[in-house]
Amino acid sequence: MIRIGPAGIGPNGLEGIKEINKLGLNAAEIEFTHSIYLSNQQAKEIGDIAKKLDIHLSVHAPYFINLSSKEKEKIESSKDRILKSVERAHFLNAKYVIFHPGFYQNQDKEQVYQIIKDSILELQEKIRHNGFNVKLAPETTGKLNVFGDLDETLRLVKETKCHFCIDFAHLYARNQGKINYKEIFEKLKDFKEIHAHFSGIEYSSKGEVRHIKVDIEEFKKILKEIPKTKDITIINESPYIIEDAVKMLKALKE
After folding, report:
1. pLDDT digits (tens, 9 = 90+) for 13-62
2. What is the three-class DSSP state of 57?
3. Which of 69, 83, 97, 241 gives 20 to 30 Å between its CA and that of 4?
4. What is the pLDDT of residues 159-171, one digit of tens each?
5. In 3D, which of 101, 199, 105 has the Cα closest to residue 141?
């Protein structure tokens, strides 16, 4: 099954979820971009409505995360933000917490990988200890100086048993517009469930510059390659979160 929804539910979460349902969308990502703005009680109320309406929720942890920082206190505060996001996700009935793992910062890539891996293993142990039914999902990233190409991300999945978020726009930018969706899905063949992001993307020689309006023809190329056996949720991250999500849903139904 393919689920489509927006990155965000608006300032009034309960009404936002209802509006998403009215439009025929069946997924949404709660964006903790700058802060974790929901209490556990608010999260539970939104989660209960979403479950009733069969809208699958996910959570995007704050952007101020760097598990490979040269400063130990920044790594610890990053872990704290992820754990608080996981706690809200638990009450939201959200399965995945998506986050950008870290930056290279002129460090050895293998060293950065190991630092991030160790942080994820530590976080997963705390998640299990708290009884949260939530999976960490590091996201593929769009800038060349940021950890998170497809192979790095899938290696993390293999070695830590975390999940993942495939951001097709980020991969498009990271690879300078050279992208083969069939090859991507071939690398994902062992996963029945996929969480993904999509949007239009502007990029430079350094990778991602900014998200832009969805290119529906590009989206159709992705739809063409999705195996029928997969359960995939695709979250629209363009500046037009609802409008473009509805266009994506229309393309799916064509």
Report:
1. 889 999 999 999 999 999 998 899 999 999 999 999 999 999 999 999 99
2. strand
3. 83
4. 999 999 999 999 9
5. 101
- In whole angstroms, what is the distance from residue 113 CA to residue 193 CA? 24
Tokens of 227: 């195996």
- Report d(CA 45, CA 147) in Å as an integer: 35
Cα angle 98, 119, 148 (rounded to 5 degrees) comes to: 50
Give the up-direction half-sphere exposure of residue 120: CA atoms within 13 A in the CB hemisphere. Answer: 29
CA-closest candidate to residue 134, choices 190, 98, 96: 96
Nearest to 44 by CA among 98, 84, 83, 89: 89
Nearest to 215 by CA among 251, 167, 164: 251
Those residues whose C-beta lies under 8 Å from the C-beta of residue 167, and which sit 6 or more positions away, are 139, 140, 141, 142, 196, 197, 198, 237
Neighbours of 40 (CB within 10 A): 12
Distance CA 252, CA 149 (A): 27
Pairing relationship of beta strands 207-212 and 27-31 according to DSSP bridges: unpaired
Buried b / exposed e along 149-160 (16+ C-beta atoms within 10 A): bbebbbebbeeb
pTM of the model: 0.95
* Residue whose token pair is 């996981």: 86
Cα gap 198→244, rounded to integer Å: 10
Domains within the chain, CATH numbers bracketed: 2-253 (3.20.20.150)
CA contacts within 13 A on the Cβ side of 173? 27
